[in-house]
Amino acid sequence: MAKQKQSSSCFLNSAILLFTIFCVSSVSFSARLHPILQSFHQKPIFRSNFHSIYDTSNYGTFQLSNGLAKTPQMGWNSWNFFACNINETVIKETADALISTGLADLGYVYVNIDDCWSSVTRNLKAQLVPDEKTFPSGIKAVADYVHAKGLKLGIYSDAGAFTCQVRPGSIFLEKEDAALFASWGIDYLKYDNCYNLGIPPKDRYPPMRDALNATGRTIFYSICEWGEDDPALWAGAVGNSWRTTEDINDTWASMTKIADLNDKWAKYAGPGGWNDPDMLEVGNGGMTYQEYRAHFSIWALMKAPLLIGCDVRNMTAETIEILTNKEVIDINQDPLGVQGRKVSASGPDGCNQVWAGPLSGDRLAVVLWNRCSNATTITASWDQIGLESGIRVSVRDLWQHKELTSDAVSSFSAKVDAHDCHFYLITPYPDHSVE
Ligand SMILES: *[C@@H]1O[C@H](CO)[C@@H](O)[C@H](O)[C@H]1NC(C)=O
Ligand SMILES: *[C@@H]1O[C@H](CO)[C@@H](O)[C@H](O)[C@H]1NC(C)=O
Ligand SMILES: *[C@@H]1O[C@H](CO)[C@@H](O)[C@H](O)[C@H]1NC(C)=O
Ligand SMILES: *[C@@H]1O[C@H](CO)[C@@H](O)[C@H](O)[C@H]1NC(C)=O
Ligand SMILES: *[C@@H]1O[C@H](CO)[C@@H](O)[C@H](O)[C@H]1NC(C)=O
């Protein structure tokens, strides 16, 4: 297998000019459709099953043209920790904490205000107004504060008559609300799905896309219709990300369920549009260190938005360690932008799981995830992750921050604790494979 010529050997037949032209143009065409197979090493790295493991048939096929979301969005959102208990002080202190903890430097730049920022009624001009008690200085003042720190401000509304906490929604007033958000300097809109009048999402979400565009301000558009109408199939042309599931909660059961639901839509993600399995619960106290580490690893691998959902003003050392793991963040932000996915589930109840995804530079990210309550040995075979069996690779552990071997061939195994995961960066040495 290792000696087989790679498919781009058409270059070798370039004696016939026409054939060469055909060849070059078909290579560049397929490179556009399948940017993940551009290796020109002497020996093939990837098995022929690579494209069925990592189906990217819808990668980049339709995208919102606002130029955003080349990689998944990173930042913070108020809901998971504070719910309705927000005010301008907490938003500003969060911006301060994103800077002082170093999180902002790692890419967490969106400061997103969720539900409850607005008053329960519109004003006489039918405009949304910030709650007088909790945002007395107004949203523009918060935006100015956040911008002065080099961060971006997100806000929340609803594609219905009311938000989930029964503040005014934006349906039928999309243009007016988008213009108001733009005038405040808003950079991001999360657009929810409550009180939606039974109108299909495909009819309710595009008007806000067009309204945001018409403002002339570049605003990230985060669609939150809870995965009800299979948004992966259509929302790429509407928003920069789309929720694929119900709301997450701070439990192992919720996190694992949502990971599996989001996995189903992997082939639809790509630069410009991401599947969104909801905000992170890391640091909120309902899961163990190992479970949060698995949560963060799988979200990173799935190219999910990395939106912190804890109180960043008051994080434990363990929470900081997880959220600031630059090697894991780099997997999430890899420019190739192909969503990693579950490639194998074996053992009792399918608990021994291998999740993997291609990265730029012919590298792979591999997670060994133990979904059961007993430590177990999990193996990733080259067959499962799409490598030629004779390929030698180096294996770097992204939680231990060290190279485990520079010489793995055909498979890699590790003992993984209950509910824990190991996260590896796999770099092949194609020209040094076993003969
Ligand atoms: C609005 O959409 C057009 C084309 O669809 C695009 O070229 C332009 O950059 C968009 N503007 C904003 C502010 O998103
Ligand atoms: C602002 O919200 C935070 C978090 O809920 C709370 O601790 C604080 O007391 C509030 N401050 C004011 C002035 O309401
Ligand atoms: C959390 O999510 C799980 C899985 O969907 C669900 O069974 C559970 O009831 C939820 N818990 C709360 C408190 O909402
Ligand atoms: C900080 O978090 C800890 C839990 O990790 C909690 O017990 C404490 O009350 C929090 N402090 C503040 C000021 O919120
Ligand atoms: C698995 O773990 C449970 C406790 O979590 C323990 O009671 C049981 O003996 C373990 N089973 C095996 C096969 O180790």
TrEMBL record:
Belongs to the glycosyl hydrolase 27 family. It comes from Stylosanthes scabra. Transmembrane segments: none annotated. The keyword Signal applies. InterPro entries: Aldolase_TIM, GH, Glyco_hydro_27, Glyco_hydro_27/36_CS, Glyco_hydro_b, Melibiase_C. Keywords: Disulfide bond, Glycosidase, Hydrolase, Signal. PANTHER family: ALPHA-GALACTOSIDASE MEL1, ALPHA-GALACTOSIDASE/ALPHA-N-ACETYLGALACTOSAMINIDASE. The lineage of its organism: Eukaryota, Viridiplantae, Streptophyta, Embryophyta, Tracheophyta. GO terms for molecular function: alpha-galactosidase activity. This is Alpha-galactosidase. It holds the Pfam family Melibiase_C.
